[in-house]
Amino acid sequence: MNVEPIKRPEKTETAGLSLSRRVEGIPEALSIYINQLVYDMRRKGRDIITLSLGEAFFQIPLFDFAALDAEKCYHYSDSQGIPELRQKIAKYYVEHYGAPVHQDEILISAGSKPIIFLIMQAILDPGMEILIHEPAWLSYQEQARLVDAVPKFIPHDEAIGSFAKYITAKTRLLVINNPNNPSGRVYTREELRLIYEQCQRAGVFLLVDEAYSDFLIDEEFCSLASVAPDKRGAIIVNS
Length: 239
Fold this sequence. Notes:
The protein is of the alpha/beta class. The chain has seven helices and five strands, in the order ααααβαββαβαβ. A five-stranded parallel sheet has the order 2-1-3-4-5, sandwiched between helices. Helix 4 (about 110-125) packs across helix 5 (about 140-145).
């Protein structure tokens, strides 16, 4: 298949109006750009096999919203999210992953990307370092730069028990994606335990993006919540 060369849009400037240096230093999200290429080619009738999107390969059922209290949908909810929804999520983690989660530990947001960015805003000061285990979802490093933190990387083939050697006095957060996008790697319970223990000893937060937890078919998924039941220094994101 012939793929059209990537042509990034040219910058446009208006006199007296400009973006911050911080934003100007962040490249266009390559994943979103590739997705747009896919959409454009499909609209032209091209037969596309897509390997770039982290989407379900099966049909998602249409859920019935008739039982919802429509009156509640037109007003602000609790600041952490509707309690009934948080209860359902907590129950889901307990029943499916054996992970003890309480509704008061859950915060509902408009997707994973915003909440990961807010987490970084909450725990990082300018110049602090974020460790990211490669390969990694493209957004993590750019989100780090947006909060004036410094992204550092752990090579994909580094032994799990040796992550600590990449931690410095400036390291504040370690990020992994489990299951991993793009490699498909699934971190085992023992691997998660080793990573978490190294972070605990160094006083580093561990953020595990579990957005693809339900995509597993023949492998067991282990949530960080079942490895770190007290959640000390543990941050879990799902969507």
